Amino acid sequence: MPCQQKRRLATSSHLGRVGAAADIADAVAFFTTPDSRWVTGQVLEVNGGLYLGPRASLHH
């Protein structure tokens, strides 16, 4: 991905950055632990808030 496009995505993201492979790996790793033993039939959306809509500007 070109740097300019990556910066634009990062500034519009709720977390202020684009996702990384480690973000997905951490979510997958959770399901390998006993902490996930009561999680059944779920879809875990790992998208950094993408579905929340556009990030609000802090400048008025």
TrEMBL record:
SUPFAM superfamilies: NAD(P)-binding Rossmann-fold domains. It comes from the Bacteria. This is SDR family oxidoreductase. The lineage of its organism: Bacteria, Bacillati, Actinomycetota, Actinomycetes, Pseudonocardiales. It comes from Lentzea alba. It holds the Pfam family adh_short_C2. InterPro entries: NAD(P)-bd_dom_sf (IPR036291), SDR_fam (IPR002347).
